[in-house]
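Render this sequence as a predicted structure.
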Amino acid sequence: MPTLRELHAEECEQITDVGIDAMAMLCKSLQYIKVSSCYNVSTQGFASLAQYCPGLLRIQADWTSVDDSTLEALGRRCAELQHLDLTGVTDVTDVGLIALAPGDRYVGEVSPISWQGCPNLRELRLSGNTRITDEGVSHLARHCTNLEMLEIAGSGGDWQGREGITDATLVHLGQCCPRLRILDSARNPGVTDQGLSALMRGCQALEHVLLSYCSITDTGLVNVAQFAGAALEQLCVAECTFVTLDGVKLLRSRRPGIKVVHNALELESQSIDCLWELGE
């Protein structure tokens, strides 16, 4: 047990914070833990993991009840973390995302404190979280510049008036994350041609971009044709109301190497394996 490197669990109600705490104390060399849909693992369990297993590289905690304090614990102790899956986690806000970022932190009006954060973060999955906004994701982009994959689909705000993800996030990704290969920002209506253009100009390593149900128009496709890097393989603009067949044909003619997914039928028939490429 002391040499255990990986723990895989999924939909296990029997696993609780008590078990995670005991395991963390025994298995301090743990590098990868998967507790997907283990609803009885909460912030307490992850605090123990962060305390006793600072060498963690990958955490898959999708559909769990973790929150901002979990990310605070990871940012305080797990500087080597590279992969973090929080898909379907709804209690993480901008506060948690900021805690993952390295750099000086200000608490009240006192002098800044140095914060190690997770500077090696390469993959972050946050789809389905309506409580994150441009502030948190943009801050993360500015400080975690090694990002290669980011999923923020369905973060377009909520009934409390939060604006969610807009062009501002894509602008910061374009400015700060040149290694970004995969971006899923679907179902964020605040994303427009302006953000897409900035993304294409700055992220020349992009291979797959998913922007279905966003506010993209034919002008955005012209910008893709003009500015996208040679690595771009797929662009999904399914159900973008203002993207026309003429715009799709123009992009396909100018950049035949880019697969353009335009309608819902194409979207459903696609197996977007790229979204799991880095996680396998």
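Summary. DSSP finds eleven helices and twelve strands in the chain. Residues 271-280 have pLDDT under 50 and may be disordered.
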